[in-house]
Amino acid sequence: MEVSFLGAAREVGRSAILLEGKKKILLDCGLKLDNEDELFPIIEQRTVRKLDYVALSHAHLDHSGFIPGLYEQGYRKKTVLTKPTRDLTQLLLADALRINEDVPYDEKDVSRFLASTHMLEYSERAGPFVFHEAGHILGSAQVEINDAKRVLYTGDINTRPTRLLEGAKTGLAAEALIIESTYGSPYDSLPSLKESGAYLANSIKETLRRGGKVLIPTFAIGRGQEILFTLESYMRSGGIPHAPIYLDGMIKKALRIYRHNAIYLKREVQRRILTSEDDPFNSEFYAFPEKKDRSDVFAAGPCIILSTSGMLNGGPILTYIKALGGDPKNKIILVGYQAKGTRGRELLEGADELSIDNERAPINMQIDEARFSGHCDHKDLMEFIKQVKGLKKVFIVHGEEEKEEEFARSIEQWAHKAKRNVDVVVPRLGETHKI
Ligand SMILES: [Zn+2]
Ligand SMILES: [Zn+2]
After folding, report:
1. What is the crossing angle of helices 401-417 and 378-386, to 10°?
2. What is the pTM of this model?
3. Distance of CA 222 from the midpoint of ligand 1 (Å)
């Protein structure tokens, strides 16, 4: 059996892994946004036409964003995914088409993809696939492939339970493991959800009491819902003063999809939805901007504004920064990874102005950071690997190059100490390896 890395090799973005055994299988097919440029997986049309299956681990565009491109190139078979992944991917692709002019497919290809989906429940078997919970976002899956060998692809994983999801399933069996490494460096240690929540609540409390507004830029899917439910819970229990929580951008639509797919959420959340006075999706604290220019929100008193995009690349958050960023009473709290070259990173590095729509927007508001992650940190990843049964080979993907190398060394050290014969590979883009 062979595995080829067509993307996400020594990089985060454009995840695409080709498995060739009895069947030809593509795992994920995403986009990479690299300073305005879009990069695609390096897949040739003749490979696309020979594929037997595509499996999608979860909806994020770095995993899903080029799947319609496969249909554009003549792929006519199924894409295997979970139902929430289908719903969320539909939302994200529609948005990607609206914003970007240079994606090499159109609505027809998106429809073709949606008409060719095969939905799979966790633990159910279909062809060579079994999906397992990945704990990353709603519907996210680890993909187990039973072909000439048994292979496990983690997609993006989080083994810690969050407010909405159970942690990823561990203790699975696989001869070869293809694992993400976003926080794979031994220096990557993430605070617990409880610590992050408490820090966020304190930071918000301080600003609201001063009469300021709090901006929280966030990804539409995954972290957005986790943050929202954290705030709702603190507010209900009196941990932060009552104030409207404005939801703006795609996060609102994504929330509806989360609600429709509630059976994929934690039992506890499902129970709260059923007892309607405690439904976290219908909280009395949520508010929505009514005016297109958001003047109603600007005129409101102290409030919290949750809006996309998470790294300030675009979205309504920029409108808020322009209007509110000059006032030192206000605060912006960054909650996720801020890639190099983004406005989010500029803020963390202390920028006192940002360029938005070719204008300089002064930044006098306070800047704070509370880390919430949908990924395992180094320790969690190591623990996950130790629990894989029958493991012979590990391929590290979906991480910055240095982190992948450091992660590989950690795995080798463990294998050596534990007297386990495990081969570790950090593949380069376009490489093919034997399993
Ligand atoms: Zn993801
Ligand atoms: Zn990812």
Report:
1. 40
2. 0.94
3. 8
